[in-house]
Design brief:
- The protein has 76 residues and is an all-alpha fold.
- It is 70% helix and 0% strand.
- It contains 3 helices and no strands.
- The longest helix is centred in the middle third of the chain and has 24 residues.
- It starts with 8 loop residues before the first helix and ends with a helix.
Length: 76
C-alpha cells in the first residue's frame, strides 16, 4: 500500500472534476481497506491516517459540490 501525502486545499482546487472524482475513489478504496484491517484486528501503522483520510474525502466532496452548485446557478 502506498502512503499518500496529505492533500492541500489549493492543490485540490487546481484539479479538474474528473481528477477529483478519481482521487475520491482512490481515497475511499484505501480507507475501506484500512477499516477492514481495523475490524479484523490486523491494523497497521496506517491507523492514525484514518482521520486525515476522512477529512481529505470531505474536502474533495465539498469542492465538487461547490462546483456543481456554481454550474447549476446561484438562484437555487
Amino acid at each position: 500500500m502506498v502512503v499518500m501525502a496529505r492533500l492541500k486545499l489549493r492543490d485540490l482546487k487546481a484539479l479538474g472534476d474528473d481528477d477529483l472524482r478519481d482521487k475520491l475513489d482512490e481515497l475511499r478504496t484505501e480507507l475501506a481497506k484500512i477499516m477492514v484491517d481495523r475490524a479484523k484486528g490486523t491494523i497497521k501503522k496506517e491507523s492514525g491516517r484514518i482521520k486525515y483520510m476522512k477529512r481529505d474525502i470531505a474536502r474533495i466532496m465539498t469542492i465538487l459540490n461547490e462546483r456543481r452548485r456554481r454550474k447549476g446557478g446561484e438562484g437555487s
